Amino acid sequence: MTDTVKRKLLKLGSLSAIAATAALVGCGKKEEPAPTAAAPAPAPASAPAPKPEPLKIAFAYVGPVGDGGWTFAHDNGRKAIEKEFGDKVITSFVEKVPEAADAERVFRDMVGQGSKLIFGTTFGYMEPMLKVATDHADVRFEHATGYKQGANMRTYDSRTYEGAYMAGVIAGGMTRSNTLGVVGSIPIPEVIRNINSFTLGAQSVNPKVKTKVVWVNTWYDTAKETEAAQSLLNQGADVLFQNTDSSAVLQTAGKNKKLAFGWDSDMSAYSPEAHLASAVINWGPYYVKAVKEALDGGWQGGGNTWWGVKEGAIDIVSISDKVPAELKDKVEKVKAGLKDGSFVIWKGPIVGQDGKEVIKKDEVADDKFLSGINFYVKGVEGKIPAGK
After folding, report:
1. Does 126 lie in the same domain as 183?
2. Which of 82, 75, 139, 138 is nearest to 107 (CA)?
3. Taking each helix axis from N to C terminus, what angle separates 70-85 and 284-296, rounded to the nearest 10 degrees?
4. Do 199 and 348 fall within a single domain?
């Protein structure tokens, strides 16, 4: 092969190779861009904080919740707590707890069941509650009507004497014999104060009235209350009042066609024909306040709270149509005065049963005086028996 031929063949091969390369480039796929990296997934939301455990609240009642009076009123207060705070609280109660060693056992059992706020709703629970409170500093204790407090125990009360006075205004205007009868429970200052206030209210419209008292030495005993009421009627009383817990006094008056009042709760349904009005206690406002403080961390031991008409804790309700308009107006004026502070029940001159002045003219009794009353005012007959 000549050199000329070799050069021609090499040239032809080179041209073919170039053409083949060009063909490959022309039909080849374009290079795809690298995929964009996916955005990182959002971090999972943090788990909600666990719901606080409900506050366990326990009540000790001296009588049955169906007594229609004192215990019924406290249980209405317990229900007000449930309505106000819902699932933030769990409430429980033990009824018919005696004012004796059993009370201490009940309080200790409540602590053992996890209760962190405990209400003892009668005067006789004071010593056993104080003893249990001393042993359980992490539990809050509230004692009704007592006077001893501690670092984790405080007291509360209602000015029941205001309701007693308003009932007395009605009684003084409704009596025909000028003799009123009171069934007394236990001769402690709060009960004596109520008897006196009832009498003072009656005397404000009828200075001739006198008040007879029969003591039963118990808060709740329908048989004893009935017997005491009948005794007062037999002694000439035609309007009855009480400082006991059941509706027995009112019902006894009805059976004898006489008149009487409901006490602590609205008792009008028990004997409508005898019922003049009911002096009631609303524990709800205080119980809601105490529980709110416990939930918010603002609860403090020690001290005493004493609420009345002004704070919505005391009222007189269901005044009968038998009561004349002028007496109703008098009661409304007294209530308005108690609410705004323009009227004071225990303002002198007030004279004791022995005729001696116990409060001078224009002098106003302070709470210390009221808390220690151990005498009858003029117009109340008989002697105060020794306390339990």
Report:
1. no
2. 139
3. 40
4. yes
Rounded to a whole number of angstroms, the CA Rg of the chain reads 40
User: Whole-model pTM?
Assistant: 0.87
> Based on the domain organization, do 149 and 199 belong to the same domain?
no
Tell me the residue type at 24. L
Dihedral, 284, 286, 292, 295 alpha carbons, nearest 10: -100
Q: Helices marked H in the chain — which ranges?
A: 3-27, 70-85, 101-112, 126-135, 160-174, 189-203, 222-234, 248-255, 284-296, 325-340, 367-371
Q: How does DSSP classify residue 377?
A: B
If asked whether residues 85 and 132 sit together in one domain, one would say yes
- Alpha carbon dihedral 150, 153, 159, 164, in 10-degree steps, equals -100
Parent domain of 235: 160-280+314-371
The band of 45, judged by pLDDT with boundaries at 50, 70 and 90, is low
Instruction: Count how many Cα atoms sit within 13 Å of the Cα of residue 170 in the half-sphere of its side chain.
Output: 31
Segment 300-337, tens digit of pLDDT: 999 999 999 999 999 999 999 999 999 999 999 999 99
